[in-house]
Amino acid sequence: MKILVTGSAGHLGEALMRAVRERGDEAIGLDILDSAFTNHVGSIVDRGFVRRCMSGVDAVLHGATLHKPHVATHRRQDFVDTNIAGTLNLLEEAVAAGVGAFVFTSTTSVFGDAMSPPAGAPAAWITEDVAPIPKNIYGASKSAAEDLCQLFHRNQDLACIVLRTSRFFPEADDNRQVRDAYADDNVKANEYLYRRVAIEDVVSAHLLSLERAPAIGFGKYVISATTPFLPEDLAQLRVDAPAALRRRVPGHEAEYARRNWRMFGAIGRVYDNARARRELGWEPVYDFSRIVARLGAGEGVMTPLARVIGAKGYHDQVFADGPFPVE
């Protein structure tokens, strides 16, 4: 199988290129940046370039995008051009080339304000049934691209899977207060409870989506580590997350105490991956308990593939306050 991977020089793109090659398929990398995993250097905004890259392709893993960290440094039109028009180019050329499966890497950021419950309300339980309320151009453009995928399945019978991935980037948190209050590994370990996923598990979700897309036709899935929490925990999570954690994962305390780590005082939302596990047959390896076990074995929070790929960054320049400017 010949698989086109867009965004091949990026964190996820490199991971997908490695995985596709390791399983014996032909991986064709497309990116605006040259890299060891990029075969074609150019932009998905260029329709002719996309057409040339699509020649002979059997399936597409579409990860190329402008990200949330670009909101403060790029125009809104840039997001429209890349995330919406670029996706449209890929979809149209995929149909013209007879591609059998199209997997679009979306983001839980599409949920936007739907993830922020009002004061006094329980934490939000986020499933695919929650209606997105994007709060910036990044979320809006990714939501629009999701709709294009659904449209092309409906009208052109293109098998499309949308994966709404939670955090898997290795960069430090963009919130200065969080960075000042918690060690970076402490933050990432905490996030495995409700809004982080390992790069290995993101890759496996993409590869399973390629296999299942023809049978499913169209689907949207939350891709996040399996949470130990249940809907009945939501009220307590909003006011006393450490107590909820002690009840659900009582074995974490020793490892946290050894490092002088703390759980966040409150958690405002929890991502539920049940549909992806059920319909894709996805079995994520890394969850909070697995991360705690890794800590006990001296292996750290960063997973093996994340260590191999390292941090890619989002900008050429270095910013004085944080890994990237916040809108």
If you had to describe this structure to a student in words, what would you say it looks like?
The chain has one domain (2-185, 197-228, 269-288): Rossmann fold (3-Layer(aba) Sandwich), CATH 3.40.50.720. The protein is 41% helix and 13% strand. The chain has helices at residues 11-22, 47-53, 76-97, 137-156, 176-181, 184-191, 199-216, 234-239, 241-248, 253-258, 274-279, 288-296, 304-309; strands at residues 2-6, 26-31, 40-41, 59-62, 101-107, 124-126, 160-165, 218-223, 269-271. The chain has a seven-stranded parallel β-sheet with strand order 3-2-1-4-5-7-8, with helices on both faces. Helix 1 (11-22) links the parallel strand 1 and strand 2. The longest helix is centred in the N-terminal third of the chain and has 22 residues, at 76-97. It is globular, with a radius of gyration of 19 Å.
Number of strands: 9
- Classification by helices and strands: alpha/beta
**Outline:** globular
Instruction: Supply the number of helical segments.
Output: 13
Mean pLDDT: 95
Low-confidence stretches: none
**CATH architecture assignment name:** 3-Layer(aba) Sandwich
Strands, helices and their partners?
Layout (H helix, E strand, L loop, with lengths): L1 E5 L4 H12 L3 E6 L8 E2 L5 H7 L5 E4 L13 H22 L3 E7 L16 E3 L10 H20 L3 E6 L10 H6 L2 H8 L7 H18 L1 E6 L10 H6 L1 H8 L4 H6 L10 E3 L2 H6 L8 H9 L7 H6 L18
Helix pairs in contact: 1-7, 3-4
Kindly list the characteristics that best describe this protein.
single chain; 327 residues; alpha/beta; Rossmann fold; 7-stranded parallel β-sheet
